[in-house]
Amino acid sequence: MTSESGADSEAKQPRENKETEKEKGKAKAAAAAEPASPQNQPEQFPAAAGHSTPARKEQEQQEVDQVSHRSSISRLSRSPLKGVKKTKIMECKVALLDGSDFTLNLEKRARGHVLFDKICEHLNLLEKDYFGITCRDVENQKNWIDPGKELKKQIRTGPWNFAFNVKFYPPDPAQLTEDITRYYLCLQLRDDVVSGRLPCSFATHTVLGSYAVQSELGDYDPEELGSDYISELRFAPNQTKELEEKVMELHKTYKGMTPAEAEIHFLENAKKLSMYGVDLHHAKDSEGVEIMLGVCSSGLLIYRDRLRINRFAWPKILKISYKRNNFYIKIRPGEFEQFESTIGFKLPNHRAAKRLWKVCVEHHTFFRLVSPESQPKKFLSLGSKFRYSGRTQAQSRRASSMINRLAPLVERSSSKRYNMSLSLDGAPIAENHETPMKDSAAAGAAKILTKGDLITTVTTEKKAEEEKAEQEDAPTDAAETQEPTTPLRHDTKTDSEQTDFAFDGEMTATESDADDDSEMRTQDTSPPEEMLKHQTNISELKRSFLETGESSPGLTEWEKRLSSSPAHSPRGDEAPMIEPLELQDTKDEPPASEETKEEVEPKTTKAAEYLVKYVGDSVATDLASSSGLHGISPSTTMDDDVFMDGTLREVDEVAEREEIKVSPGAVRQEVYQAISDKKGTLIILKEADDKVDAEGKETGAAGEEEEPALRGEAEGGENEAVMGVEIWSPKMEANGVTQIKGTDSPKKAMASWISEVVKTEATEVVGASTKASDAPQPGEEVQTEQSKSGPSQITPPESSTTSLAVSTLGWVPSSEKGPPEPEEKVVVATETEAAPAESTGPTGCDVVEVGTKEVPVVHTETKTITYESAEVETNGDVDPGVLLSAQTITSETTSTTTTTHITKTVKGGISETRIEKRIVITGDTDIDHDQALAQAIKEAKEQHPDMSVTKVVVHKETEITPEEGED
Amino acid sequence: MANMCPYGRFTHAVVRGVPETFGKAAGDDSEKGETSVDLAKAQRQFGCLTGALRQKVGLQLIEIPADPELPESWRIEDVAVIQGDTALITRPFKQQRRGEVEAVRKVVSELNLTVVEMGDSGGATLEGCDVLFTGREFFVGISSHTNHRGAEVLADTFKDFAVSTVPVCGGARLRNICSMGGPQTIIISNSEGAKKTLRMMEQLTDHHYEVLTVPEDLAANCIYIKGPSKLDFLLHRPAEECPESVSAFQKLQDYTLLPTACSEASKLGGSLSSLCLLVNRKLTYF
């Protein structure tokens, strides 16, 4: 359908108009927009009418996009529109699964989720998370429409033609709540079968076909159906008379079976097919051999010809990335291997690589995680880093369990149409994210004015399993702390595997599932088999939970179990290197998990100390701390992060955290004020090395070799940001991620971690040492972990996240944050581990240097406020250790650029993994910098729970003075 | 799927008698000339096996007469892979064995199975003893006798299932180191090579299996059948042949263990499963 050409559409328009008239429905948008087009008006009805009406194909709109159009009608409509508003209306044609078309008008600037929601409404579909919208690109490849992005940006050329498809094939369709959902899944599968995408044997064709017939036509009735009824339907790519006869034979035996039952049988058979739900991509292996990569709910499958030659379950995958036309997966070390390995595949082109990458990210998130990872703050940037933003399967199931309506009537009669359509459509397979973005809107594109660089310090991981365990715990704690609001967060972390997703270019986004992450960091080598088993067990657990359908607002049973389950810890060990995912393991300790406060508290204590410091500093906002530039030693950084967290939390959670930090709140407020004053400010989090000067560039420079490269890239992307001199992400879009493995000395990275603190957040610096002491507290695993790992570790990540959320935005979307938080927590844990090694520095270290030039509104002054926790000593990296690996990942969003440096070092018997994250937020005054910063920090934390915010630099240029020297 | 019922349901067994040329066959295989086999004993053991299948397990037995011209024809497992209602007639590696398929083809046709010929497509060779079907998927051991192309044909024939290729070490055949011991149980040898293969299988599979390891290679080849009476039967090598492993089989709960000697066939590289093709003609749909 997509490619119908203009002639067609033109011809149809008049007809459509008539139809529309008859049927009331017009696109809502159209209706709203064009009050007076002569022709249309009579027809127009309330927007709602259009959707609700069954009028399938014709539907609503004839309205034409003004852009494209030819028919007089369209013109008419246009003019009115213009008069009223300037919004342009586009006609969208969507090929539905039953072969019909659904046409509707949308504002040209509408985002994907608008279209998706309208389609689902039209279809009366509630369990929509499994579905998505595809459109064909120039190469006729199907691409999933990103719900959070504007449609027009996703359709380069051509008419607005889409297809509605199943995006995530549920492994167990019986668990779907509604029959109508299964009905649509069946339609998709029938098409998959007929098109050959889902190969099956003759016997299977027979069985599937017979159930399809029963579903569509009901009981076998020769008088009514005639003898040839079966030939009107399609069951197989090469349908034979013999097949039809067999289908009929079986059909005769189903008398009395309802359509819904038939569909269940259909699905029960279809789901067992080995290619069920496998999204295939052509590729070549490192030796140039043609292979196919199949993405499915359980992981990545590698096929050569028809043979499965390898398989990487999600838990085995530490990182997914792509660069140019190469696609990489980093594999967790096997039982007897010491290091992870990276496997590269060549795809036909860059787009294909990106497409595959996205599909992997989405599938991993949907099936493996409890909740989406980092997206929580869509506001700013997330655009660039692509993340699956919809609900995960777990969330979807929970939501579905809440569905409380009478089973809707499913119109299945359209079979013939379907047949026809099938032949036409052929292959609707694409992959998409269907999920509507939660809050994409806010992200917006702010201009450059503010940039915040967040640098998170990397945590050193001790290899010792114990430590790992601790770490895991810690993450959980963190998660818990964050979660206070929402239990969902925990869920997200369930799987806890971390898988990083790196985009082309520079951006590396690491996804961390709590468990994996922690594992990864800690253990270089993890026992794969065990892990697998664990995972399986866990998944089983999950299933059972899921099945139970817990929808309770508080912690769901699922969550609880996760937290409580001992299994988690083991996984934790296995966890991926970089980012801690919040896994069930984390949850093991969960009892506390619910209480974010607890975690916070520990932090808070630390925070308190820092806070004090901050207060002094912060008050002075502008005070340029002497050390402002100072990098923070890695360990310190941890602390710093903690601080940040603490402060933020404190602000938000002040009450909660009571223990330590009452004062912090005050500090925060101050900070807030300062921040608020500075709205334009750039916040730069620099690593110790880099002095956080107001200039983002400098910060970026921080020492890491990787950075430079990144910056260059980033700059290109971020040019927008005035200040944002140093934007790492090359690609503006979130998607591109580059991993750079630099030889950069780990030290630098460690030292350099600077996290940006939200302005409002005020940096809370919690001495790691304090935290360590705190560790004993309630419990949060994080704390404990910290204590174990070393004194200095900071729980901050969690706290910071929370605080950020609260303080900055007062985030409404606590739920969203929730998930991230857990992650963060995890991260924290890891950090803590790392910290111990570094521990020496940490406690004392927190020196927060705030060099803020408070320049009120006047000139374009740039104010730079730097909050650093600098531990010079740490910077010194007493023990350089041996650098195992270093990589830099940069991701950009319109307003935010995130650079992540990951360094692995071995010192003595301890391996440290340090992750430094620098986030630069650039934006116009319009943008709420604080929010942006808060989001950025949250994101960072989510990704790396362990991280601490080392430095926050707020660079403001006052509008008044145009562009004068920023610095 | 009709084809996807749990492993182990069989109604028929197809066997082929041990010819008097037993052990001399292998025409070009000089190595085998050296091994001394006891024809009478081999035939006796064959008789015990078929007797167990028919009388103990309760299968319908179809015995193809021995053919002296085809000294290895008793290894009937090699020439066909049967799953559900489909039989893939394979193309054995050795030229002189290719004649063995004719009689088997005829029998499976009479059983109303859909017959698929591997033929000489792209030099495909595959022997049944390199194929492990678990009820949910196929594993094909790439060996000296089975190549990638052969595995592809298998995958094309049984499209419902994942077909994974796994390495087999030391010139062994896949079925010599592992076999099914239940609907979800894989019996596998404890040797290093077998472990390596097992690891690969674990990596490749989407499913969960219980693994029963046995200390002796020979013991890893068993025949599991869920008989018409719904009882679990396991034909395994007797204690005389595998003293170390018998205790492992005792762990299988509620199984009827049928120790079945196979020492002579074993000398020629065969094993229990080599001697029969199992068929299920009662396909259940659901």
Structure write-up:
The complex is a heterodimer of chains A (967) and B (286). Chain A is of the alpha+beta class and 967 residues long. Chain A contains 36 helices and 22 strands. Chain A has a 5-stranded mixed beta sheet with strand order 2-1-5-3-4. A 5-stranded mixed beta sheet of chain A has the order 12-11-10-14-15. In chain A, α9 packs across α11 and α25 (634-677) crosses α33. Chain A is globular. Chain A starts with 5 loop residues before the first helix and ends in a 10-residue tail after the last strand. Chain B has 286 residues and is of the alpha/beta class. Chain B has a single domain (12-26, 37-279), classed as 5-stranded Propeller (L-arginine/glycine Amidinotransferase, Chain A), CATH 3.75.10.10. Helices cover 24% and strands 24% of the residues of chain B. In chain B, the strands form 5 sheets. Chain B has a 3-stranded mixed beta sheet with strand order 2-1-15, sandwiched between helices. Chain B has a 3-stranded mixed beta sheet with strand order 3-4-5, with helices on one face. In chain B, strands 6-7-8 form a 3-stranded mixed beta sheet, sandwiched between helices. The longest helix of chain B has 19 residues, at 39-57. Chain B is globular and about 45 Å long. Chain B: It comes from Gasterosteus aculeatus aculeatus (three-spined stickleback). Chain B: Keywords: Hydrolase. Chain B: This is DDAH family member 2, ADMA-independent.
